[in-house]
Amino acid sequence: xxxxxxxxxxxxxxxxxxxxxxxxxxxxxxxxxxxxxxxxxxxxxxxxxxxxxxxxxxxxxxxxxxx
Length: 67
Hints:
This protein is of the alpha+beta class and 67 residues long. The chain has a domain at 40-67. The chain is built from 4 helices and 2 strands, in the order ααββαα. It has a two-stranded antiparallel ribbon. A hairpin with a 2-residue loop joins strand 1 and strand 2 (50-53). The longest helix has 11 residues, at 28-38. The model has no long low-confidence stretch (mean pLDDT 85).
C-alpha cells in the first residue's frame, strides 16, 4: 500500500473535488447531447494519448460505451 504524506493527501483530496450541480430535469444522456452541441470538437475522452471529441464519441454505436 502506498503511504502518502500530508501534502500529497491534501493534493489528492483537492484534485478529486469534482462536485457539480446537475439540472434535476435532465438525465446524463441529455446532458451529454447538450455538451455535444456546445463543444463538438472538444476532447470528451482520452486514453493512451488518443482522444475522441464529443462529436466523434456521440457518433459511436452504443455498444462502444458499454465496454
